[in-house]
Design goal:
By secondary structure, this protein is mainly beta. The protein has a single domain, classed as Beta Barrel (Porin), CATH 2.40.160. The protein is built from 1 helix and 9 strands, in the order αβββββββββ.
C-alpha cells in the first residue's frame, strides 16, 4: 500500500509541473525502453514534459527490473521498480538528426518483499545518451543511453540477495511526439 501511495504522489507532483509550463513549450513525448542495470533486465516507460525552446527537458521514467537470486544450483527471480525524475540537456546537436545529451536527477527504488524489507530508497543517477531523430515523424526518435545510479546503496537486502538498484546501466528505446 505504501508503494502505491509513493507512486501516486510522484505522478501527482510531476503532473503539477506540466501545468506550470508556458503555452509555447512544445509537445509531450512518450516512449518505451529496455534497460540493463547492474545485470538486472528491465522494461520501462518514459515521458518528456514540454519546456520552452532553450530550456532543458524534464524527463520522468519508470522501469520494472528483474533480478536473478541464486538458490542452490538454480535461480529464483524477483522484481523491483525504479522511478526517476531528471533534467536532460537538449543543446548538443551532432548533426541535423543526431543529438548527444546528458541527464541527471533523482532515482527511487521500490523493492519487492523478496528482495528487501525496506519499502523505498532514494538516490541519484546520471547518464549520457544519443538520440537519433526519425525524419518522417518530427520529434520522434530512437535512443541509446549509458549511465549509473546509486539508489540501492542504502537498502538492506534479504540473506542471499545481491545488491540491486545501483550500478552501471545501458539502455535503448524510442520516444514518440504526441
Amino acid at each position: 500500500m505504501k508503494k502505491t501511495q509513493i507512486i501516486i504522489v510522484f505522478f501527482v507532483i510531476m503532473s503539477g509541473t506540466v501545468h506550470s509550463q508556458t503555452s509555447d513549450s512544445g509537445s509531450f513525448r512518450i516512449g518505451f525502453h529496455l534497460r540493463e542495470l547492474a545485470g538486472d533486465f528491465g522494461l520501462g516507460l518514459n515521458l518528456d514534459l514540454p519546456t520552452p525552446q532553450n530550456w532543458p527537458t524534464i524527463r520522468l521514467a519508470g522501469t520494472w527490473q528483474w533480478q536473478e537470486i541464486p538458490e542452490g544450483t538454480s535461480f529464483d527471480k524477483a522484481s523491483y521498480l525504479t522511478l526517476r525524475a531528471g533534467v536532460a540537456s537538449k543543446s548538443f546537436q551532432i548533426q541535423e538528426r543526431i543529438r548527444a545529451y546528458g541527464e541527471g536527477g533523482l532515482l527511487g527504488v521500490l523493492p519487492s518483499d523478496e528482495l528487501s524489507e525496506n519499502s523505498f530508497e532514494l538516490g541519484g543517477y546520471g547518464l549520457f545518451g544519443f538520440e537519433f531523430f526519425v525524419e518522417q515523424y518530427g520529434l520522434s526518435s530512437l535512443f541509446l543511453e549509458v549511465g549509473a545510479s546509486s539508489a540501492g546503496n542504502g537498502l538492506e537486502t534479504r540473506p542471499g540477495v545481491p545488491s540491486f538498484g545501483t550500478g552501471f546501466w545501458v539502455g535503448a528505446g524510442f520516444r514518440v511526439a504526441l
